[in-house]
Amino acid sequence: MSPGLEVVRAGALTTVQDEGRAGWAHLGVPRAGALDGPARRLANRLVGNAPDAAVLETTLTGCAVRVTGTRPVLAVVGGAGCRVTVDGRPAPWGAPVRVPGGAVLEAGPAVHGLRGYLAFAGGLVPEPVLGSRSADLLSGLGPPVLREGDVLPLGRPGGAPCADTVPWPGVPAELVLPLHAGPRDDWFTEAALRTLTTAAYRVSERSNRIGLRMEGPSLARAREGELPSEGMVLGAVQVPPDGLPVVFLNDHPTTGGYPVVGVVAETALAGAAQAVPGTPVRFVRA
Amino acid sequence: MSGIRVLEAGPRALLVELASGDDAEAFHAELLRRREAGELPAVREIVPGARTVLLDGVEDRTLAGRLRSWTVPPLSREAGEAVEIPVVYDGPDLADVADAWGVAVDEVSRIHARTEFRVAFCGFAPGFGYLTGLPGHLHVPRRATPRTRVPAGALALAGPYTGVYPRPSPGGWQLIGRMPEPGTLWDPAREPAALLGPGARVRFVPAGVHA
Questions:
Q1: Does residue B54 share a domain with residue B92?
Q2: I need a labelling partner for A150 at 20 to 30 A (CA). Which of A3, A47, B7, B174 fits?
Q3: The domain spanning residue B43 has which CATH number?
Q4: Of B7, B21, B126, which has the smallest distance from its Cβ to A141's Cβ?
Q5: Closest listed residue to residue B123, CA positions, set B131, B134, B115
Q6: What's the CA gap between A64 and A109, in Å, rounded?
Q7: How many domains does chain B have?
Q8: Are B15 and A286 in contact (CB < 8 Å)?
Q9: In chain A, what are the domain boundaries?
Q10: Closest partner residue to A253 among B45, B56, B123, by Cβ?
Q11: Could you tell me which residue ranges the Carboxyltransferase domain spans (chain B) (predicted)?
């Protein structure tokens, strides 16, 4: 039996993610890919995969998978901190774990952070779409969201892991987002721009892979009317008519008609991926 | 070309804003020509919009200054082979569009089918192209109340644009017809995946009528 994973507990929202599908935005295809890129790369390193191998991304509640076949599979659970077990027995978090054939690897609910990453030696190898195995929840490209009973194929393990312990970043109590102004900051009042970089925002529970939505003071526009649809970048802070900023994450639409007041530095987006609803957010000038 | 504004969209993207949609299409065509000729520094994405072209993944900081000084030839709408889309003009908003245009209902299809369209940009869903070509007096507003479900293949109008829905979705555009086989609009296993990519010339052919 070829190596694979059978989904025993799918969790709230578990998807297959790799580096995403860059280069197709002009056709309306979002980039997708793991929201916490550094966590995905670290997890892959720990099981000897190329950094761009596909992993599982969990949301808040973790997931559980059974190794099909008879051979053991090297796996690691990283990203959001959680309890890890193999057939119910405690196993280390953030470090390689040997999961015997037939055994169940479980990532428990996140105790800090939001999104867990499960990497397996050989990587997950569902059929790629436009060069990527990432699930894109905006347009539905790539492998579907995991459901109990699904079976996912694993690739052939590559080289030996290049590390067996690495430092994982902690999850800060407050999310600080460095912001580059523009391209449409001139659509907002001076007062609104001051508010954006001084007010206390919180992560809304309506956040998802498309955008990190904010709760807090709304931003007043200096001009009315519609913005003709224009291209959107990762990290763009779009302000819809309710005035509440949305930070675009990997599944964001490629074009949009609401003004972008600023762009969050890409290096801060891994932290945004791990911010649970209610986390205080501060935008600071980049 | 006058009135080029180059705006920064973060540290690695430039949003080039043009004076009109026509200028944006011409600028996009020029970008593709220069990329093809190896005259453009590496960029990850070139994303046209209604009045803009976004260059994402720009490593060369000097590009912004150079873009402003480009000489851009006007768009040649006749260049290249047109993609022909067979359609049936029987949409539920045909009468409303005829009213807005001030013509008889069966005249809508004739006017639409003899218009040369061009994909200005994509968005909304993979394979959904915003097609320009209808003159200003034939632009129609969106429906006051969007439909909760528009079927795949619906041929629709809104503002300056014509589009064909690649898959079922909610939508507020005016529906004037349908493409009987919408599956060809988007096929990620095909190269190119989108039948209607930016810059493509398009003609709608009433089904059963051969050009």
A1: no
A2: A47
A3: 3.30.1360.40
A4: B126
A5: B131
A6: 11
A7: 2
A8: no
A9: 4-153, 175-285
A10: B123
A11: 4-196
Structural domain ending residue among the three candidates B68, B100, B119: B68
B164: in domain: yes
Q: Is A177 on the interface with B (CB under 8 A)?
A: no
pLDDT band at A224 (very low <50, low <70, confident <90, very high): confident
Residue of chain B with shortest Cα separation from A255? B123
Which residues of B fall within a CB distance of 8 Å from A24?
A: 126, 193
Q: Are A22 and B7 within 8 A, CB to CB?
A: no
**Does the distance separating the beta carbons of B56 and A236 come in below 8 Å?**
no
How many residues can be counted in chain A?
286
Pair (B47, B110) in one structural domain:
no
Q: Do the chains contact at A130 and B188, CB–CB below 8 Å?
A: yes
Domain around B61:
5-68
Residue at B136 is within a domain: yes
- Among B10, B12, B47, whose Cβ lies nearest the Cβ of A26? B47
Structure-model confidence comparison of residues B78 and A111, the more confident one: A111
Q: Is A120:A5 a contact under the CB 8 Å cutoff?
A: yes
Interface test with B, best of A19, A138, A230 (most B CBs within 10 A): A230
pLDDT digits (tens, 9 = 90+) for A92-126: 999 999 999 999 999 999 999 999 999 999 999 99
Domain boundary among B18, B35, B68: B68
Instruction: Give the one of B45, B50, B56 whose C-beta lies nearest to A228's C-beta.
Output: B50
Q: How far is Cα A76 from Cα A70, in angstroms, rounded to an integer?
A: 19
> Which CATH number goes with the domain that contains B197?
2.40.100.10
Count of CB atoms situated within 10 Å of the CB of B72: 17
Angstrom distance (rounded) from CA B36 to CA B29: 11
Mean pLDDT across the stretch A139-167?
89
Shared domain for B96 and B194, answered yes or no, is yes
Distance CA B47, CA B54 (A): 5
Q: Say yes or no: B105 and B166 in one domain.
A: yes
The reply to whether B23 falls in a domain is yes
Exposed e or buried b for every residue in A254-279, given b needs 16+ CB within 10 A? bbbbbbbbbbbbeebbbbbbbbbeeb
Q: Taking phi first (over 0 means left), then psi (-120 to 50 degrees means alpha), and beta for anything else, what does residue A198 get?
A: alpha
Residue of A19, A21, A24, A27 to mutate, interface with B, max B Cβ within 10 Å: A27
Shared domain check, B94 and B11: no
Provide the shortest C-alpha distance from residue A186 to chain B (in Å).
11
* Interface predicted TM-score (ipTM) of this complex, two decimals: 0.94
User: Which CATH architecture does the domain made up of A175-285 adopt?
Assistant: Beta Barrel (2.40)
